[in-house]
Amino acid sequence: MAHAGAKVALAARDRAALDTLAGAIRAEGGDALPVVLDVRDLKQINAAVEQVVAHYGQLDILVNNAGLGANHTAVNVTEADWDEMMDVNLKGLFFCCQAAGGTCSSGATGASST
User: Fold this and answer.
1) Which tens digit of pLDDT belongs to each residue from 39-51?
2) 3-state DSSP call for residue 79?
3) Cβ–Cβ < 8 Å for 81, 70
4) Cβ of 67: how many Cβ atoms within 10 Å?
5) For residue 14, what is the DSSP state?
6) Which residues, in sequence order, are bridge partners of residue 10?
7) Which of 5, 48, 50, 102 has its CA 20 to 30 A from that of 39?
8) Whole-Å CA distances, 1 to 25, 48, 49, 75, 86
9) What are phi and psi of 9, to 5 degrees?
10) Is 96 helix (H, G, I), strand (E, B) or coil?
């Protein structure tokens, strides 16, 4: 997306990885905003969307790319494993869409990719 000229906000839990990727995008002439975000935390989701809108003025596209799975067989998945997967893969996805959608005006266009 950055190669196509989009201004991109990058979100992840790992600040160092975000800074590295943002630096690479900027080195190629792109515009990137690193945002630390754990999608399991609703306050962080809302703060991240607010940060992006404050920086760029709007949010046009949301790519929900966070996701995880158990790294062992289903018979060994614990309740904690399950809860973490659902928090990231379902709860995080839904509330990211909700927060991003809340920034759109009635005439705005935009997209979400999951």
Assistant:
1) 999 999 999 999 9
2) helix
3) yes
4) 13
5) -
6) 34
7) 5
8) 10, 19, 18, 39, 28
9) -105, 130
10) helix
